[in-house]
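In keeping with the milestone schedule agreed at the kick-off meeting, the structural modelling team has produced records for the first pair of proteins. Each record is given below as a sequence line and a structure-token line. The laboratory manager (R.T.) confirmed that both were archived under the project's standard naming scheme.
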Amino acid sequence: MSVQKAVKIVTTHQLHTMKERGEKISMLTAYDFSMATLLDAAGTDVLLVGDSASNVMAGHETTLPITLDQMIYHASSVVRGVKRAFVVVDLPFGSYQGNSSEALRSAIRIMKESGAHGVKLEGGFEIKDSITRILSAGVPVMGHLGLTPQSIYKFGTYSVRAKEEAEAEKLLEDARLLQELGCFAIVLEKIPSSLAKRVAAELHIPIIGIGAGPHVDGQVLVIHDLLGITKEFKPRFLRRYAELHETITNAVENYIQDVKSLNFPTEEEAY
């Protein structure tokens, strides 16, 4: 059953309205035209062209290797498949940290060359100049706090963040700052549910969780994980809604068997 689409086009204003009326926001990653078309038609509110493409599309161990050009390629493909969803694109590692002018150039390239609706940056106080510069050009910015995969070599682990009081207070301060700067929403990744609940209650902008419990304004998952295409990734927060790894493997094995046994194509499948 398809989701009833209350609005024709999702905007930052619509996302804020959804939070105000208590309607949860659905967000999924997308990296190509075909998948974006399916997710958009199903009624997904936000599509994230995530730098997780570095992992699930390119096979890298981390998100760090993916380039701005590659992100623009994926974003352009997704935008062409969308009629309703809000499309936000990750600024990749090295395209915004420490240089607000570079950050602005990166964001403008994404907006102009892909047609996306906004960008997402990882971090708080340390990237405030980049966020301010991008916002000054009228580009919507989504923040990202908690586990920030672009900083994996700094943390050295993908474990839950902000469990200690000092780090939790830092996250709260950063969340308040991102809202004050003008971010339209924030993703909280892999933090205690109680802390995420506190952030969502205190801030008036939407808070999207991934591994942050149920008390936020929306949820995001990587589509390859949700569909069961990836098998090794099994965090507690992940719910698999399909097991396409087995479905695809079985289909391809049957195809190979039919080709080798001359069962495909049949005379009915020939011209």
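The second protein of the pair:
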Amino acid sequence: MDPNPSTFADSSPADSSLGAEAGPVTAGPVAAGPGRIVLAATPIGNTGDASARLIELLGTADIVAAEDTRRLHRLVQSLGVTVAGRVISYHEHNEATKTAELLEQVRAGKTLVMVTDAGMPSVSDPGFRLVEGAVTAGLTVTAVPGPSAVLTALALSGLPTDRFCFEGFLPRKAGERASRLADLAAERRTMVFFEAPHRLESMLRALRERFGAERRIAVCRELTKTYEEVIRGTVGELLLWAENNEVRGEIAVVLGGAPEQVPGTPEDHVAAVNELMAQGIRLKEAVAAVAEDVRVSKRELYSAVLAAR
């Protein structure tokens, strides 16, 4: 069918132009063989990054579950694709109620393609519930890989890429954000975050308070789009940049990991063991905790504590 707003069968709650919810998905003729779920990555900015497999699936799938049907409509128009299947609105506010219906369609033999606004579904986007349910039900799940804001930001950051972790969005509340950052204080891997432009300044300030002004960082803005920009430097330098500029667009922040600590000698850490013991922790447990943290031999540290008495 012609993929215009009047013919999309389902709609996002924010898009009244697409009509009311169409109700439960009906099975129709059961396809031969088992169904499957395909997580399909969509462009994060430049529609030229859409893969041939994504284009083919959008035109042939029985069901297209979209985070925002308006964005899907714009995407298929730009790609020149005619969506032949049923378009279903599937987002964080209706995942709980629609997942079972979609799984029934897959169980009946349908091919369901899941797309989000940008990038790979289920990665800081809707889709996890669908995959979790499919795995539990023994249904087939596969993926069409493609653009990723996480990997693109990491690759462009100039920071180590051999080991990294993705932390998504930090909590908005200052106390919760500080607690999350405290958990990451000793993280040695490069860290990738997402952040809203209007909260970037407060995020960078929190990073400076926890990790210091000299930690290496990159702010990646509008990746693959016309005004793509990657600003690299220290946390202090980028905080100053954010304070003096109006930051716009979609943001990914890449933060260097904690520097390697020189272990030192066991004698250097006797005071830390004594401090834990003063808090009521037994000698053996205190030695184990400090030895693991500073990476020295537990046996040697234990001997050093006894020798210092």
